[in-house]
Amino acid sequence: MDTPIGVLLIRPLSIYIQQELSKRYTLFKFWQVPPDLRRDFLGKHSDSIKAVVGNGVQGADSELIDALPLLEIVASHSSGLDKIDLEKCRERGIRVTYTPDELTDEVADMAILLTLATLRRICEADRYVRSGEWKYADFRLTTKLSGKSVGIIGLGRIGSAIAKRAEAFGCSINYHSRSQKPNSRYKYYHSVIDLASDSQILIVACALTRETRHIVDCDVIDALGRNGVVINIARGSHIDEAALVSALVEGRLGGAGLDVLENEPEVPDRLLGLDNVVLSPHVGASTVETRKAMADLVVENLEAHFLNKPLLTPVI
Amino acid sequence: MAEGLQITKIQQSPEIIVLGPPSVFRTHGKEFSSRFRALRPWESPLPLAQFLAAQAQNTQAALCSGTFSLSAAVLDNLPSLRLVVTTSAGVNHIDLSECRRRGIAVANAATIFSADVADLAVGLLLDVLRKISAGNRYVKNGFWPKQGAYPLGFKLGGKQVGIVGLGSIGLEVAKRLEAFGCAISYYSRNKKPSVSYVFYPDLRKLAATSDILVVCCALTEQTHHMIDREVLLALGKEGVIVNIARGAVVDEKELVACLQQGEIGGAGLDVFENEPHVPKELFEHDNVVLSPHFGVFTEESFGDLYELMCGNLEAFFSNKPLLSLVSEE
Known about the structure:
The complex is a heterodimer of chains A (316) and B (329).
Chain A: E1 6-9, H1 15-24, E2 26-29, H2 38-45, E3 49-53, H3 62-66, E4 73-75, H4 86-92, E5 95-97, H5 104-120, H6 122-130, E6 149-153, H7 157-168, E7 172-176, E8 187-188, H8 192-197, E9 201-204, H9 218-224, E10 229-232, H10 241-249, E11 255-258, H11 269-272, E12 277-279, H12 288-306
Parallel strand pairs in A: 1-2, 1-3, 3-4, 4-5, 6-7, 6-9, 7-8, 9-10, 10-11, 11-12
Chain B: H1 2-12, E1 15-19, H2 24-35, E2 37-39, H3 48-55, E3 61-64, H4 72-76, E4 83-86, H5 96-102, E5 105-107, H6 114-130, H7 132-140, E6 160-164, H8 168-179, E7 183-187, E8 198-199, H9 203-209, E9 212-215, H10 229-235, E10 240-243, H11 252-260, E11 266-269, E12 288-290, H12 299-317
Parallel strand pairs in B: 1-2, 1-3, 3-4, 4-5, 6-7, 6-9, 7-8, 9-10, 10-11, 11-12
Helix pairs in contact in B: 2-12, 6-8, 9-10
C-alpha cells in the first residue's frame, strides 16, 4: 500500500483548497501550529511531507526546505516567487509551480481601486457618513483621477492590465521596465526617477528581485512629490517603507494606497492615523473566483507531479 | 484707491441672487463676490421671502445650488428673473415648467462632472466587491496580525453590468467598466443608435440579467422610485446596486429591507432620499459602502464648475448665447 502523501499547507488560503487537498493527501495545517512549536512539528512529520503549498505572504524559505528531506515539490498559490528559495530548490531538485495568470485581472482591479480610494478618499467618506459627521458639514474636496498621468513600474501581465484600465479613465500611461516594449503605445522611461517626475500616480507592478528591492526609494518619492500618489500591489519591499512613512507624515508625498507592506502583517504605527493612506491586507488576489482558479491549478500541478505527468505551470 | 475703483466697478455690475448657497461658494465664494454683485440671503436675518421682496425685485439672474428647491413660490418673489444658473447637472430641484412659462432660461453644469461621477461609481462598485473600506478599517484597527480570516471579495471582470440611464455619466461608466472586462447593457427612455451595448426597454428585465446595476439617470416624475422592490428582487441575492444619481430614483425603504433580508448582495450609495439623513440600518452592513453625495467634490470639478457658471452669467449679461442651456425635452 502506498504511504499517504503529506502536503504542508502554510496559510489557510481557502476552505475550498483545504477540502480539495484533504481529499487527495494527508494535509498538515502549518498556520495552526504555534510559531515556537513549528520546528518540532516539522521534525515529527518530515517523513511524510513531500509537498509544500505556500503563497505570496509565506512560502518555502531555506529553513523550511532544510527541515523537509523528502520534499519533492513546492506548488505556490501565487504568481510571485520571492517567498521561495528557488536556488535551494534547484540544488535539491525540488520542482516549483505557481499560478501566473489567474490573478492578473483581480490584482489590476485592486490597483485601480486603491488609486480611486486614495485620490477620492472613499474609505474616509464611508467613515464620515457612518459616524454621523455628514449631518453637520459637507465632505472636503478630493482629487480627480480621470485624465491624470499614471506611471507604471513593470509592464508585465499585471502592469499591462492596469494600463488598459487606467486608459479608460482618460489617463496617459508612462512606464518603466527592464527593457522597452517594442510595440507599446505607452511612453517608456529608463529612469524610475524620471518616471516619477512625469507622473502624478506611480503604481508598482513588477516582480520582486534583488534589483527591484526598494526600487521606490527616497529619490523617487521626492520626484513624485507633494501631490503625487504611490500605489503598491506588488511586494512591500519594492518601497523603502521608512522613507515612504516619513514623506507621508511630513507632507512631502500626497498619498499612498498599499496592499502590501515590508513586514506584513506588521503596519508602521505612523501610517494608521493618516487619512491620505489606504491600507488593505494583501488581498489583491483574494476573490472567491480567483481563489478557486488558483486552488484548482495548485491541485492540478500536485496531481500531475505525483502521477509523473508534465507540470502545468512549472517554474523549475 | 484701487480698492475704491474695484468697489465702484462691482456696484455697476449686474447683481445675482445666490440661492443655497452652493458648495462651490465654500471655495470660490470670495472670488465670485469680487467678480459679481452677489446678493447673499443667508447672511441676512430676514426669512428668504422677505429678503427677496426687499432686495431682489430687479434681479435678473440667480445662481442656485443643486439642493435648493426653486419652486413657483420662490419665483413669485423674483419678478425680474430671466436666468437661473444651477451648479448641478441635475435639474430636478427646479420647477422647469414654471421657468418655461415665465420665460426664464436655465443653465446647468452640463457634462463637466461626468468623469468624476463615473470614477466614483466605479470606485464604489469596486469597494463593495473587494471590500476596501472594510479592509482599510481592518488593517488600521490592528486586526491583520491577529490572523483573523479576512472575507474574500468578488471578481468584477466578466460580470453583467446594467446601466440605468445612458446619458453622459452612463456612457462614461460603461467605457470604464468595459476595460475591466464587464459586459454592458442599459435601460434608457430611448434606444441609443450609436452604441453597441444591449438595450433593454424593460428595467426589470435588465435587472434580471445583470449582476450589477449602476443608476445614472436624472430624477423626474417618471424615474421617481423606479428602482422598486421588484427590480431589486430581479437583481437578486448576489446583485450589487450603485447609485450616484439621485436618492429618490431608488425606493430607499425597499432597498434597506432587501439588504436586511439578504435579497440583494450589496450597495454602493453616494445619494439618499433625505440627505444628509442616512438610514442607520445601512451601517450594519459590510457589503454596503456609503458616501456623502460627493461625486463632484474634486478640486478640478469645482474649478471647472466655477468657470462654467461665471461663463454662463457673463454670457447672459453680454447678450451672448449661454454655454450650457438646458433645452426643453
